[in-house]
Amino acid sequence: MAQRLPGAIGKKIGKVPTVVKCGEEANPVNPQLIMVRLESDLCTVSIDSSGELLHRRGYRLATAKAPLRETLACAVLKASGWDAGCPLLDPFCGSGTIPIEAALLARRLPPGRARRFAFMDWPHFDAPAWEKLSAESGAQPAASPRIMASDRDAGAVRAAQANAERAGVADAIEFSCRAISAIEPPPAPGWLVTNPPYGVRLKGGKDLRDLYAQFGKVLRAGCAGWHAALLCGDARLLASTGLRFQTRLTTLNGGLKVSLASTKLLQLPRIAISRTEHPGPAPRPPSA
After folding, report:
1. Which CATH entry fits the domain spanning 70-115+142-264: 3.40.50.150, 3.40.50.2000, 3.40.50.1980, 2.30.110.10?
2. How far is the C-alpha of 150 from the C-alpha of 245, rounded, in Å?
3. What one-character DSSP code corresponds to residue 93?
4. What is the pLDDT of residues 233-265, one digit of tens each?
5. What is the largest CA-CA distance in the chain?
6. Shortest CA distance to 60 belongs to which of 172, 135, 165?
7. CB 147 within 8 A of CB 164
8. Nearest-angstrom CA–CA distance, 232 and 277
9. pLDDT tens digit string along 114-123?
C-alpha cells in the first residue's frame, strides 16, 4: 500500500510525489499527510486539511511552565459557564492561554486566524475567498469585558503579553505580576477561571496544600458573589481550599486526568445597624 498509493497519486497529478515516512528527519516543506485505513475489504483514504495540530492557534510562541493547550483553555472557559460579558480573572495565567482565548471569544474572533492550514497549498485553493472570509470574521465589535491576568512569575507575564500581542488582543487584557494574596478583583461579580499548579507536571515535589489553602482564603475574602472554576488533577488540593466544588468537565491535560471544578462564592450579607437613643427616665409629675 505504501508503494501503490504514491504511484496512484503521481499518475493523477503527473509527477511522482516525494514520500517521507513518519519520524524521518528530512521532512519536505509543508508536507501533505495522507492516511489510509483498511478494515476487512473497505479502504478509506483521508487527506489532512489542517497541517499543524488544531490546538496550535498560531499565537503562542512564548511558553511558561506546564502550558495549557489553546483548545483545552477554550473548552474550560465554555464549561465554566462564563458568558463572555462579565469580568474574568485568571490569577495563574502562565503564558496567557486562558485570558487570550477569553478575549478571542468575547470579540468573536475565529480561532486559528493567525496560522496557516494545509489546504492553503492545495491546487484549487481560493485565496481571495479565504481572505474575504477572514476579513469579515475579523470585523467584529472590539468591545470586550474586563479581562485580568496575573502570575507571580515575571517571565511568564512577559510571555503572556507577547502571545496576546500576536493574537491581536493585548489591548483587551490587563496583565500584572503579583502573588495570589495581592489580586484585586473588581467589586462587580464575575468569573475566576484558572489552571493552578497541581504538582505533577512541574518539578520540585513541593506540597501545594498551603498554596490552595491560601487561595481559598483569598477567594472567600475578595471574590464574594463570584463564580470560580479551577482545572486541577488532585481532589485533595481542591479540598485544601475549604470550598465545595462541582465537577463541570473531566478530560486529559498532557496525558493527566484533570477535572474542571466550579463553585459560586457566597455573597456576604449586609447587615444594617441603626442607632437609637436610649430613652431616659420618664419625667416626674409636678408636685402639688
Report:
1. 3.40.50.150
2. 23
3. -
4. 899 999 999 999 999 999 988 888 999 999 999
5. 132
6. 165
7. no
8. 55
9. 788 888 888 8
